[in-house]
Amino acid sequence: MTDAASEGIPPPDGAAGLIDTDYIIGQDNVEGSVGPLGFDIHNPVFMVSACSVVAFVFYTLALPEQAGAVFSWLFSAVTTGFDWFFLTAANIFVLFCLFLIVSPLGSVRLGGKAATADYSYVGWFSMLFAAGMGIGLMFYGVSEPLTHFSTALGGTTVEGGVRTDWAPLGGAVGDEAEAIRLGMAATIFHWGLHPWAIYAVVGLALSLFSYNKGLPLTLRSAFYPLLGERVWGWPGHVIDILAVFATLFGLATSLGFGAAQANAGLNEVFGLPIGNTTEVLLISGITAIALISVLRGLDGGVKILSEINMGLAFLLLAFVLLVGPTLAILDTFGSSLLAYAEYLPQLANPIGRDDTNFMQGWTSFYWAWWISWSPFVGMFIARVSRGRTVREFLTCVLLIPSLVCVLWMSVFGGMAIQQVVQDGYTAAQDAELPRQLFLMLDGLPLTTITSLIGVVLVIVFFVTSSDSGSLVIDTITAGGKVDAPVPQRVFWCLFEGAVAIVLLLSVGGLSSLQSMVISTGLPFTLVLLVMCFAIYRGLQSERAIQ
User: Fold this and answer.
1) Residue 444 CB partners (closer than 8 Å, separation 6+)
2) Please, how many CA atoms are within 13 Å of residue 149, restricted to the half-sphere of its CB?
């Protein structure tokens, strides 16, 4: 077995199926220092990943027009040609997780039969939400329900035999009540079981093969049942490099969205000008704050910031719920869950759809985004989930966050929809996506205070995502070491910001960010599908021991 305990991964407590391998964590690493800065890097993975990212940054800065054209082509080619693949894969992940929950394999405990949880439920959930979907919930909490409601109410439009509208499914032309139900169902579809199943698969794989099998905390370890010792060679290098690319561009997309929304909020509160210059300064400043969190470590940085942010997030949620039409919003929560259950089979159907704009522009992008985030969120969840049973792990990661996402979308999206339907207030509906949250709050009391809280939430979610992502990428590129020198994490933190900046500055802006995330998400989807089989094999052997 590997010497995992010496590299920050605790050995199993009680019975566990340790894998007998001669591989030692860090044996392929290159160690040294440049002045006072030490490094300890996995040579092929770090060098290929780092050089590729640096080359990408310089290419995009040097040839922005050409880069923008390439990004646009990539987005169109992937969403048009592989929409069915993303939808099918996401369905498989959900079914696989549900199968493990009800099967005897769900009794396997992560970390060994006698392992106990490292964090309380409150701390666990706080870190999971802040890292998992923070910026996305802030960015899309108002805009997505409102957009789907508006497009569904507008119905379908056909030109040349092809639908040109963005309504989900067949829309609900002229029927406000059904447009609300369909709009909320489509939103929950993108933020409920499917994304959290993607995260759960990666988190479970990393937890199982590191805490129970004694292998390095990297993506390649999950493939040991299939590749054996070859997993330490180039097949494993490729898996980890793909994970780095997916994570980096997934994070860059989120950071770009966060910068755009923070810019919009600061414009509302302080009149700060909106534009690329401001957003670049925001990304630079917040990346600098993230570096401080990086230096403080997991418990001193991310954990504290996550708990503060969760408190502020639920304070804002409670405010909107209480000052708005409370009963109508709560009714939206219940009816949205029922609508989600009703429309789920149609929304998850990968073939024979005519709502191609919605399926490709929304669903395919989301699934690629969640998949690109999965190494980051999955590893982060694994780091804080030791001691849980597989059934407890999957149930909590799959169901509880989904319900909170439904509540968030119902309150913020429901409030915005009620403003349109009941009050005729359409400022949020008519605005660009980054501004919609703040214009919804503008229709409520204490606008300046709530908008300022919204800006703080976006920024802190930004910081925790950047810090956590740097930790994960550094672990992968350090060959599974979780206590590699801090300067390496600083390097990745800086380049996450750099990638977000150059993509924002390229032709297309946020569209370029979306293009790269969906392009890197495609090959990694294949990795995750094979990973499901490897998890099953690993749990079978563990079940026989525990």
Assistant:
1) 319, 320, 323, 324, 415, 450
2) 27
